[in-house]
Amino acid sequence: MELWKISLDKYNTNDNKKYETLFTLANGNRGLRGALEFSSKGNRGNYIAGIFDKSQSQVTEIVNLQDPLGFNIYIEDEKVDIDECDLYSFKRELDMHNGVLQMKFIATTKKGKSVEIKCERFVSRNKTSRWAAKYEITPLNFDGKVFIENYIDGSVTNSTWDVMNKTKHFKVKNIYDSNPGIALTIETNDNNIKSIELTTLMGENNKGNIFKNRRYSEFGEVVSEVYETFMSEGKTETIVKYGISISDKDIRSDLIAEGTKELKDFIKEGYEAEVEAHSNIWRKIWDEIDIKIQGDEKAQIGIRFNLFQLSASAYAGDTTVSIAAKGLHGEGYKGHVFWDTEVFMLPFFIYTRPDVAKALLMYRYNTLNGARENAAITGYKGARFAWEAADDGLEVTPKWGVDYDGNAVRIWTGDEEYHINSDIAFGIVEYYRATNDKEFLVNYGIEILLDTAKFWQSRVEYNKGNDRYEISSVIGPDEFHEHVDNNVFTNYLAKWNIEKALFFKEWLKTEDNVNYKVLCSKLGLNEEDFNMWETMTEKMYIPMSEDGMIIEQFEGYFDLEDIEIEEYDENEMPVWPDFKGNKLGETQLLKQADVAQLMIMLPEEFSEAVKKANYEYYEKRTMHKSSLSPSMYSIMGLAVGDRHNAYKYFMKAIYTDLEDNQGNTDFGLHAAAAGGSWQSAIFGFVGLRVNKEGVLNINPWLPEQWEGLSFNINWKSSRIGISISKDKIEVDSTCEATVIIYDKSYLISDKKQLVVAR
Ligand code: BGC
To answer: 217 CB contacts (<8 Å, ≥6 apart)?
Structure first.
């Protein structure tokens, strides 16, 4: 059972922010950071997916909503504050199997009163508006009056840790005694989105209600109810806090009436019934997503943490939101959505929960008008997806930030990191290859493929002298180099994006001619454009080394000062080499996988020898300053036979947050690293890939200490279970399917398990 738990045995106030991220409970619709009720230190956060606002902040950001977590215990006149009390037997545990956060401790107040407190909390996956906490309180050396305070705090802001950027995105509208409980409604400043939090406490034992008195209060933007009770030494009393959060983004009816009804229904159905329904759903999700690793407990817990938090960040019920770079776990990157979703997280959902993958892609479809506006206002045609997107698809990348030394720097990614367009096209094609979802392709996917290709048509530049198409002044995945010309990742994927648009428009022409014509007229495309696209794909410039083996990351990259990484820290991660007075961009050092990233995304396009040569060249120059990078090098290493590094990078990826190895877990989950962790296990160690003919291949290699690895995937209409042990591979499938294992093709029937010796 411990293999399902993330535990913390020692309390340290300085770690509060990190554990708020690690212990966030989310259900795809909303995320509640794992703040401690009994400490005021940390950055509390309560977010509903899709509620964004700009107000006075630099750019639109996810709103930190009113905080419903408020809960205090007073023993006579002393508050139980774990930063002030003596603390014993402290333990927090995230039970990932059931989706429940637990805590227990014994606290002794300044006046010597000791109390044992056990609590648990969940954010329901059953009814996404519900959340609850249960507190078991046992006085250890006293009988006396105990006061329990339940409150909702409407005074919260975004960026509490950064005074110059602190912003309040809403106005408190109503504070009231809602019977049951207390309620606080807010309205966001720009879009007038309303949201309500309602909470109340129920304290009961075998004699019924334990509360003697209740006092309702309003303190500015805080609403509170305090209950008085009497507790006896050694006797445990149980108090349940019920919570409802809803916004008018999700419901059209009267929020207050709906919220009150919901809270009453929740109390009627009870804590136990809801937590059971919620945990049942989590257990079902686990049946779809789990990767079992035998023989390596650290890897087992680590991979599960990533699968848990990534799954917590999404659900299929909303096609207007996507997963932010930091999940629903914090305000890092302002809740914005990047290429992280399509390239790093989406494969996990495609193969485990395709309905969620589809919802994520539908977010791009639903924000296509924003992408069109991005293209138009920067002088281009078609759709230009934002490097950082929020609710409407418009570009929201901040223009200014700070560098590694704290100096103000202009951020160019929103102006130049164009590859996001092809990354989204890539996500669509990957989704279709694995699911065969024609309905999606015909009605939504092809429109995106065509309109992104139309953008590229307007963005590429024809170089007459060399008779080739070029793309100048871009940023590729490696963000250390700005304003570069002909970044291969960008050029190659732009070419690929146009090729796929051409391929699928031909397909659509025969599959659904009416839709084809409607699309051509809607997007303003005809044969002249398509002919032009053909020429562009033939003449797109891809810089190479002279012998054709090493791809030059961008034009002129090989002329930069060549510095290799020579030193590694205690975690085997690169130590900054001396740039000898040069700026980072004047060296060949990379922030993250770039050429390697391209070869992972399009493995069939490069020979084994070219992949190996490029892996070896770029690995020595990659600093992994983005958490997106290690998992990709793990996959690439395995593809070219570098097995030692593969395990190292896999562990680095799965422990990104658990060991805080990028140093910023305080600000949210590294959701792309979580998706990369799944890819590293499945595309890396299992060697799962779809070949050019569209057939599923596996080519497993397991690290020495792994006795086995097993998982399920969705493939077209089948569900395939794969189990790899030291001496064999077992595969079963719900429908007939062909799988190539170590280069040999097998037809799996739904009736009989396939066993292949290793
Ligand atoms: C990386 C980007 C990534 C972003 C959000 C940056 O540090 O360089 O590739 O999209 O973080 O995770």
So the answer is: 223, 224, 225, 226
